[in-house]
Specification:
Blueprint (H helix, E strand, L loop, with lengths): L35 H9 L18 E3 L17 H23 L9 H26 L11 H4 L7 H18 L14 H14 L3 H14 L8 H4 L10 E5 L11 H7 L10 E3 L1 H5 L27 H5 L5 E3 L2 E3 L7 E4 L4 E4 L25 H4 L6 E5 H15 L4 H15 L17 H15 L6 H7 L3 H4 L3 E4 L35 E5 L14 H6 L10
Antiparallel strand pairs: 1-3, 2-8, 4-5, 6-7, 9-10
Helix pairs in contact: 1-3, 2-3, 3-5, 3-6, 5-6, 6-7, 6-13, 7-13, 13-14, 13-15
Amino acid sequence: MKKTLFLMLLAGATSCHTLDLNPLSEASTGTFYSNQTELELAVNDLYRLAFWGNDNELFSDNEWHRGQLTNAVIGGTMNADDAGVQTFWLNSYKAIARVNSFIANKERAAANTPVAVMLRLEAEMRLIRAYQYSRLITHFGDVPLLTEPVTLEESYGIARKNQAEILQFVFDELDFAIANLPVSYGAAETKRLTKGAALAIKARTALYAGKWQLARDASKAVIDLGVYALHSSYSQLFLKAGETSKELIISVPRDEKQQVFNGAGYVQDNISRNAGGFGAQLPTRDMMDAYECTDGKPIDESALYDPKAPFKNRDPRLTATIVEFNTQWLGYNYMPHPDSLTVFSSKENRRVPNKDTRAVAAFASFTGLLWKKGIDQTWPDRLVEDNDAIVIRYAEMLLTYAEAKIELGEIDESVLNAVNLIRARAYGVSVEQTTAYPAITSTNAVVLRKVLRRERRVEFPREGLRYMDLIRWKLAEKALSTPVVGLPDPAAQNRAKWPFPGVSPLDDDGLADYSGFGTDVKVLSQRSFDKSRQYLWPIPAVERRVNPNITQNAGY
């Protein structure tokens, strides 16, 4: 019997606009989809992070985890039996199967569901299915294209479809959603998929596929809707205070009270050891060195950069993203210097042993850096992380528009304005205050391309966009083939060169080179990326064992 597994149906979602995060039980397609409530439940079930998350930041050169050393992506060990690959594939096709089931059976509710409601719910579902296929083709290339429920027997004969054919299907589905979804649902009816969400997914998909005109037009359409705006504070956007921001286009609701959250292990990996954490999930030195100085120049060109005071005179997004040395963080002064054996705690109102220096705690941050972006001051007390998960926000659309226009050779004032809006927000000023932030004025395509790529990196860390940027720009073979570096062990640390021994040279792609620093940096792990195969992921072996008609990508 064909059956859709509603593993976590959202209870209480009889309203078509609000989302509840509690699970119900399974529902067989034999009796389901018979009324409006059941249609809404089916749609709401797909508003879960398992179906929406961007790529893991650990797949990139922005983040590193002490306990993992290297994951399968940056370690070059990904294979067809990799659990992460299987989960990605399974979640995508699980969502696709549920959409197909909905579309095949929705007419059962036609007699008691308004036509407008059915059309909108179908548009939401088709958007979700399009999103799944957009992610599948960027990671796997050619994949099976399923648009209706299939029997077990039929599934054995399924083969992969050409990526270009699936891409066109995605755009067609998104156009249906754009035409049939509302611009908004009202202040009390947030978090549902809208016309803007469909346009934003179209813009991202087109950008990743190098379809510059489509990316330009879709991102411009989002801008022209007039319903989105940059949040006034970059740092606050990623905390609870930002969850209702007009900058958010797609975000997935999460809430401790509804039992949708990350627990103690995740929290402790991300917070300082003084605050009760492990200091294990870390920004890389590569990430830190990507931020410009306040004169708009990279660190290897700016006279303002001092490797002994690396947080000074930098793009404000640096100290909004990475904890600055010698500042209070989570109730304790953060100072990883090997001679700072005690620090002052504002939480305890006294000096305490400094567990954030490796001279006291051997497993304190190996890079010397800690994440600040998105980390709430309540995390150490609650041991809970339940921030809403941001999937797409307005800043991405501005930079998508700018990038598409640059690649089309259509550089004009609108390109500079799109980039400068984001740069000005970082400094807390308006875009017109060009003397208060390093406004971009160049119209040279080579210069603007470098600015745009650097801007994406420093605007979106921890949001899961860096990996796909490295893939589509064909930079993964460079960025993911260099070592992860950290501070020398305390006994080997030259205090005169603390924290960093000199200015890291950056290449034309903005990638840092630490090879000339010798023992003044410590190699923590070696990244490895095989350009002959890793630009696509392997088709999961379990799928091919069941159905040999599904061919494998080259090199796996």
